[in-house]
Each structure stands twice: as C-alpha cells, then as structure tokens.
Design goal:
alpha+beta; Proaerolysin, Chain A, domain 3; 2 domains; two-stranded antiparallel sheet; 1 helix; 16% helix
Length: 204
C-alpha cells in the first residue's frame, strides 16, 4: 500500500514539473512574440470631439530698402521667408512608439481635409515620430518692384496658416506572427494656406 502511494506521488510530482516547464516555455515564447518587429499596414484619420480645422496669422518681419541715388533701383523681397510645414504625432497608448526599431524613420500617409472630413493622402507621406517635425522649403517666392530715386520702400506681410487636429488609427502587423494591433492617437499639422504682402514707397 505504501509502495503504491509513493509511486502515485512520484507520478504527480513529475507531471507538475512537466507542466511548469511547459509554462516557462510558453512565457519565453510569448516574450519573443512581443519583441518581434512590426510593419505599418494602414492609417486612417477621423474627426472626434475637439478635432477640426482652423487658421491663424503670422506677421512677417518688415524689410526696408533705401535708395539714396538719382537712379531707379530694382529690389526683391521674399514674403514666404516665414513658411514652414509642421507635424506632430501623440498618443496615450504606451506602445504607440515603442514597436519601432531605434533609428528607423517610419513613413505614413499624410492627412488632408476635403469637404470637412480628414483623409489619408495616398500621394503624400510624413514621418511617424513622437516629436514635432518642422520642414522649411528649399525655394521661396520672390516679390520685386522698382524703387524710384531718393526713396524708401517698406515691405510687410502676413502668412495665413491652416491647422489640422485629427484622430489617427494606425494598424501595425507583426512581421513574424501576423499579430495585428491598432494604435490610436492625435496628429496636429500646420501648413501655409495663403500670403498677404504689401509694400509702401516714400520719398526721402
């Protein structure tokens, strides 16, 4: 009777040890899955409460030209010197940016608004990063005029910017397992909408 009881006890202990080993293996496998690389599958933009489109103005620094000669002079100025394009992604999801490989630049479809609704632009891409990205143009627009003799020209202007705040839904997929995950957050985009320039000429 005692021998049979000891045999059963040994079998039970071996079974428990086997289950524990299997559990540790599953945990190791799960950790490996969590650490796998992900790739972007799709991004969608929607307007939720508090989102939308607005505009604001930015004054340009005035430029003054003075002609002390008796000859007319042609002068140029660039009203678009204050031009920039700015995008910011943010999210309350703690995994929103941790799935990316360090040093990589992930590009996603840009946001644009048509008919009061936001869409993902198939023709334009922007970097998905947890910081503000500001880009400046390589070419600026010139304005020019002829400055009469003994006169002063003062050039001023404003740039009207359009600001878009939208909710994004980013779908990513595990490269090895095909695990799907959707990240929700906000995008804030600022871009130039129009420019108003003015020049005033005065005699010296």
């Amino acid at each position: 009777m005692n021998r049979n009881l000891m045999y059963r006890l040994c079998v039970s202990l071996c079974t428990i040890a086997w289950l524990c080993t299997g559990l540790v293996s599953c945990q190791d496998e799960k950790e490996t899955i969590v650490n796998e690389p992900f790739v972007v599958k799709n991004i969608e933009y929607v307007f939720e409460e508090g989102d939308g489109e607005s505009t604001f103005e930015q004054e340009l620094n005035p430029i003054v030209y003075v002609n002390h000669t008796n000859q007319s002079q042609y002068v140029e100025w660039r009203p678009f010197d204050g031009y920039y394009l700015e995008t910011t992604f943010s999210s309350d999801d703690p995994t929103a940016f941790t799935w990316m490989t360090e040093g990589d630049t992930i590009m996603v479809k840009d946001v644009f608004v048509l008919g009061g609704k936001p869409y993902a632009n198939d023709a334009g891409y922007i970097p998905y990063q947890n910081e503000t990205i500001r880009e400046f143009p390589s070419v600026s627009i010139k304005d020019g005029t002829s400055l009469p003799p003994n006169s002063k020209l003062t050039c001023t202007g404003k740039i009207i910017f359009k600001k878009i705040v939208a909710t994004y839904l980013l779908d990513i997929e595990g490269a090895y397992t095909g695990t799907l995950q959707t990240i929700k957050g906000k995008i804030t985009k600022t871009e130039p909408y129009s420019v108003r320039s003015e020049s005033v000429c005065e005699e010296l």
